[in-house]
């Protein structure tokens, strides 16, 4: 072939280079899949755990698209839930999505995350427009903080009314579960059983263990309120930080403990990667078996904060 023709074909190939993707979806074995496959699987699940990166606009956009499409497919059988709303704010959340309060009143009544307006308001607006139930699933943060400081035994003395806002006690925490073990190792501690009792000397190991227990009480509370608010035949789409459900751990573990293996759980894990078309290349995360679906997003994607 003449050099001029080779040059022409090269220029044509460059001119038709596909657009850069904002995201790509993969299954647990890192095989490329479509959004339609995700939607079909999600519609057949009892619980969908969307593990997001809190400041990533692609996560928030895809959450909204999935909620819209599930609402259309489920025909009144979709329930929303989110880590971003704490259980003692359930009345305020319900009043808002049922149209009994305004945006201003909701903001005054509930402890909204700083990025609520940009990242989560589209979901509550959808719920309000379609009268979708929306569940506040997370433990009130002051009690998670209490566990992080003093261990699970610190919850023994809280009131009966407060205990209704968290997962049933006593709570067993297996610190050898991968997520909690990794969290402890990151903080310089190591797993050493399931006791909630703090060490009076406040060692690094005990501080790390209590931090993991605080994560566990969040996971267990979210799992408990998911199950309390989902009826047979419904799909509950739950939004949570990726760490709470990746590796089929965290909330997943407590859902299995509480509901058994018959509950159909689908997980989505969000990851930053240099190139969504080649998710395993240069990734700092082992993506295999991370979740049922992996949402690969360019690591240089603009952030919401």
Automatic annotation (TrEMBL):
Gene3D superfamilies assigned to the protein according to its UniProt record, in alphabetical order: 3.40.50.11550
Organism: Spirosoma oryzae
Domain called Haem-binding uptake Tiki superfamily ChaN: residue spans: 38-255
Protein's name according to its UniProt entry: Putative iron-regulated protein
Pfam families: Cofac_haem_bdg (PF04187)
Cross-referenced InterPro entries: Cofac_haem-bd_dom (IPR007314)
